[in-house]
Design brief:
This protein is about 35% helix and about 20% strand. It contains 13 helices and 15 strands. The chain has a 5-stranded mixed beta sheet with strand order 8-7-9-10-11, with helices on both faces. The protein is flat, with a radius of gyration of 21 Å. The structure holds iron/sulfur cluster (SF4). Iron/sulfur cluster binds next to loops.
Length: about 325
């Protein structure tokens, strides 16, 4: 189902001549990791070490791992560049190859009420946008593919934390059609207050994100309200090089001003198991991937807030601001 671009990768390795490669593959593609490692070793004659850690995004480059095993290159599957890493990296995006024509036909009735459509995709599906645009335009729609912004590497690309391009075009758009999965579609729904229609090639379905958006918004409201009553805050600083969100100085200064106690904590993976022992902290604020707080709400015993939500708790922003300008 995916294009692993083996030829291009081998060519790149030939040019770069690494001695040892650390191979990072997201969970969904991990079953291919052994095959890819063997291929690189056999054809490019380069030693390969497969990272057994999860790869959540292009923000999640395993630079420390690579240094420990003395690799001189990291190969990352399933992602496009996100930030400028302090280590050589080759990206292979793994484009999705399955035909989506049938599903696309099913999408048109869902878009019946709208003329101006914003068209976006996760990196695996960007190559399918021209075809989708053609079909939509033949059906009388006006299609806008937003120009890249922020962490996005391509026009029309969305990431779990990057929806600024949508916000820019949003006022001229009645609904967004997104090619990808639930994760990216929910992010879009939390970023812009417009109908978000998901064309999901994995589950072969079309979904409107309204119901899930409303459910998550209620959860976020509850977490923020609980945080307002907290006495002690845990400010979690993410130590992944690509996952720097918010400012620890700002968080400390604001908590001091509003008379709350705090402790600053560093973390690589943020999990409830690690947080439970910090029993005298009432609320955690994470300055790392904002989707951890939003996605994993049921996994955490105590409220876990994003940097934007924290600004509401300390009075620098409002709930209405979050709703209008987006949670992401
Ligand atoms: S959503 Fe989180 S995991 Fe995905 S790219 Fe952004 S910071 Fe990384």
């Amino acid at each position: 189902m995916y294009d692993f671009e083996e030829e291009r990768l081998l060519k790149e390795l030939k040019q770069r001549k690494p001695k040892r490669v650390l191979l990072q593959v997201p969970e969904g593609l991990k079953k291919e990791a052994v095959r890819l490692a063997e291929l690189i070793q056999d054809k490019a004659k380069v030693q390969v070490v497969v990272s057994g850690e999860p790869l959540w995004g292009a923000c999640d480059i395993a630079i420390s791992e690579a240094k420990i095993i003395q690799a001189d290159l990291i190969v990352i599957y399933g992602h496009a560049p996100f930030y400028k890493p302090s280590f050589p990296v080759v990206y292979v995006e793994a484009h999705y190859r399955k035909n989506i024509d049938k599903l696309l036909k099913k999408t048109l009735p869902e878009l019946k009420a709208y003329t101006n459509i914003g068209l976006i995709a996760s990196v695996q599906h960007l190559h399918q946008l021209p075809k989708v645009q053609e079909v939509l335009e033949k059906a009388g729609k006006k299609v806008i593919i937003p120009l890249k912004k922020g962490h996005a590497f391509y026009d029309g690309q969305v990431l779990g934390c990057e929806y600024n391009a949508l916000k820019i075009v949003s006022k001229n758009i009645e609904a967004f059609l997104i090619l990808g999965n639930n994760f990216h579609a929910l992010g879009a729904a939390l970023a812009v207050p417009k109908p978000i229609i998901l064309l999901d090639p994995y589950n072969e379905e079309i979904a409107n994100m309204d119901a899930l958006r409303n459910k998550i918004i209620k959860q976020r409201f509850a977490a923020i309200e609980k945080a307002k009553e907290a006495k002690t805050f845990g400010i979690i600083v993410g130590v992944k090089e690509g996952q720097q969100f918010g400012s620890v100085e700002y968080a400390m200064e604001r908590l001091k001003k509003v008379g709350k106690k705090y402790v600053v904590i560093t973390m690589n993976e943020i999990t409830n198991d690690k947080l439970v022992n910090l029993y005298n902290v009432d609320v955690f604020v994470e300055l790392a991937c904002p989707r951890i707080a939003i996605e994993d709400v049921a996994k955490f015993e105590k409220p876990l807030l994003t940097a934007r939500e924290f600004a509401v708790v300390v009075g620098d922003s409002t709930w209405e601001d979050l709703l209008n300008r987006g949670f992401l």
